[in-house]
Design a protein that fits this description.
The chain folds into three domains: 231 residues, Alpha-Beta Plaits (2-Layer Sandwich); 96 residues, Immunoglobulin-like; 153 residues, no CATH class. It has twelve helices and 27 strands. With 529 residues, the protein is an alpha+beta fold.
Amino acid sequence: MRALTFSIKLLEPLLATQMSAGDPNSARSFDFIPGSALRGALIGRYVKERTPDGRVNASDILFHRLFFSEAVCFLNAYPQSRDGSRTLPTPLSWYVEKDTNEPVLDFAVVEPGPDKIWKSVSLPFCHTLSSSGSDFCATFHQPHKQLNIHIDRGDRKCLNRPKESNVFRYQALAPGEKYACSVVFNDDLTSNDFNEIKKELGRLVFDGICFNLGGSHQAGYGRVEFSDVQWSNDWSEYKSLEDDTDLVVVTLLSDAIIRDNETGNWVADLDQALGFYGLKNLRAYKRTRIIGGFNRTWNLPLTQTMAIQAGSVFVYKCKNAVLPEKLFELINKGVGERRSEGFGRLAINWHRAKVIKVKKENKQKPLPYLLDKNDKDACSLAARMVDRMLRVDLDEHLIHLINHIRFTSNLSRSQIGRLRSLLRQVMKDKNIKPLCDHLDHLKTAARDQFDSSKVRVSIMEQLLTTWLKNLAENPKEVWDLLKIESSDLPSIGGVKPDLSAELALEYAARLIDGILAIAAKEEKQRAES
């Protein structure tokens, strides 16, 4: 299809507010830039340059054909991948096993295993690197956001007047992020109409031009810059897979607003839009959300409607060989309402692989900034910062490890309490010797309890006494258990934290204490029952 493609770089935070039932004084941006925001910005620039009074001329044929005819669709701007390509919403039929990140299974073409717990892929955007059914690779992307707090004090001359101030919390797209956008043209456009629209868009969109998108412009939001403006006669949002099966997988590449043909109510499936083909979906992986908007010309909010969320997947069975070809005609036109704003974009047979391989993007690391070692104040502050960053990372790994260690406990509550009290003394004195002495001088009854208790880490199972002694004699083994490597340590200005012996002793003691805490809770529940 014919398209105008360009990149959008955020110079300021961007607030493309989505509908929310939360705090009315808070606003949360979409993970993308809606096509309606882009179209609105171009309409504003068009009207400002064409009409002296800044009003819309309803008799302007070019204006209507460019912005309201659905022959021109302003697609949503999605985050750019590492190679500059436009990412797409992650299909909701992609699942991974709980507590893992790969491999990804596509439930649209494969049935889930009954003995496993599955969760949907949480990252909102993906970029497919291969379209081969046997080797389908993808990278995932999560756009960065920025949380800002604003205070509206009302009348600034009366700052101390009660009930005059409001606190606003905005979660906006972070500045510096880059998004890829496309304006696509219907094949039904005549050559003269297309050339006229192309000329006008070339005047409105060019490298280096800046726009204000989204809301709260006066508060420092929404400034963006366009770049990499290119025209293409053979552009496509995705590359479909060739398959000889009779299954057709339809994926929404943007939100779709679909109405029931009889009642006019909004519906949560595509059957109404594809009903003239006689299709009924076999299964669907879908979500819905409320879509709104704001019309600056009317100075009024738009009617709130229910939309099927981008990424929703519908599986159909087509026995008629001609039917898939007819479905492909909808790729350019889209389905549903507000298609000129980027709603209703479809993908046919975009993903058909049973297993999707996950490939991590190689992000460019900035050149390191090295602090001057003679600046003792700066180095001291950096050391404190990286130590805190390290502890946050260690705490996350510690919680994950404690939750995944299997501890078969036969210890009484008195033995657990005595050992936990001893561990607190070990952390306070930074001396592991009392723990070793306690394990070496256990009485017969206590030793029997310890020897009948087992600890299983990953696939290795050990007696509790053996595991405790090994960890007490060599506390630095805790780094291997937590999977901490020196190359992953945080760094500021060349200053890195030190995995000292005292730190290893502290986290070894906290690991043991965390496991005992779970055992004490289970013992208490057994006693109460």
